[in-house]
């Protein structure tokens, strides 16, 4: 072997990590190289407010808390914000209006409005009462909404932690210590307040605080498009019901996705040669799982009568909308009735320094079927963010913050407060 070939052999052997040279023809054969075991990154994060869940309610809660001056961390198990609007694909939020006027505004409306405008969309005329409720819902490009939601969080100073979930929480003299884990990451969050926006009140469950649910939950929906084309966010996707869908655990989430995709594959095979599968959401969207047993429980009578609670912090407006195996028959509210949500329905019974927002609000099943939709969830998120921020600043718990201070803060940030 001449000097040139020997130098080339040594270069290949020693300069390419993990590769050994073998074979009569000079082929390179990969050989495993022992590497030290990687350790999980351990982080300690101190914050005023920890928001768990970056979905419809959680995104708004985090923005409001941060804009109010609270140091805020948002932990989200997925890869983007928006939840049902984005990952679930139900990019058709409502209702922001009732009986000819807007009743929900604030940060949620700000993001929805920006998304529609940036995508060149159209707005309904809220001064006109539609023949059917869905005619005043907005079609939003979910991809644009996800980008804008993330930008708004970062601009407000929210620390985002994707791919992480809480696994334990314990009380401290100053609030909470919450252990969160993600791929290669262990994070200890020391916070004064928790806002649980997980949809199923999973942090409330970790704390063994009371929760409510029925044996059978409403079906989830897997959104898809078979055949043709569609402008993103402008026309409805097709959907199929996923019965038994349950968002409570990773096991039940997995099963809901498996069941939905199996049904969809059957549809694709049935359309072979006639229509291509053009779109499929990455996850099944869920309507119902656990709700908290709160300091106040909103009943369907409260909801349909438009009761204005003494501690009302936002409106909600949608028909009673319970989905079953046979479909759904919405029951519209009587003319002029606009339900409200009390702050005490966002607080688990007997708890301190924790508040929830979104479809896990304390309510009976029929009331929840209207409360769970996106505009009321955004409004609840903003209210929870305001209450938690003020509670952290005053070193107290949300229900001990003067209600007027919470309402004034919400008004400052564009929210609409119910009037008796």
Compact summary:
This protein is an alpha+beta fold and 420 residues long.
Notable characteristics:
three-stranded antiparallel beta sheet, seven-stranded mixed beta sheet, FAD/NAD(P)-binding domain, 29% helix, 420 residues, globular, 20 strands, alpha+beta, 10 helices
Written description of the protein model:
With 420 residues, the chain is an alpha+beta fold. The relative contact order is 0.16. Helix 2 (56-67) packs parallel to helix 9 (374-394), helix 3 (106-118) crosses helix 9 (374-394) and helix 9 crosses helix 10. The chain has helices spanning 3-15, 56-67, 106-118, 142-156, 202-206, 250-270, 300-305, 365-371, 374-394, 403-412, and strands spanning 19-21, 28-30, 41-52, 72-76, 97-98, 101-102, 159-162, 165-171, 176-182, 185-196, 211-212, 220-226, 238-242, 277-280, 291-292, 312-315, 323-324, 327-328, 340-342, 354-356. Residues 7-29 have low confidence and may be disordered.
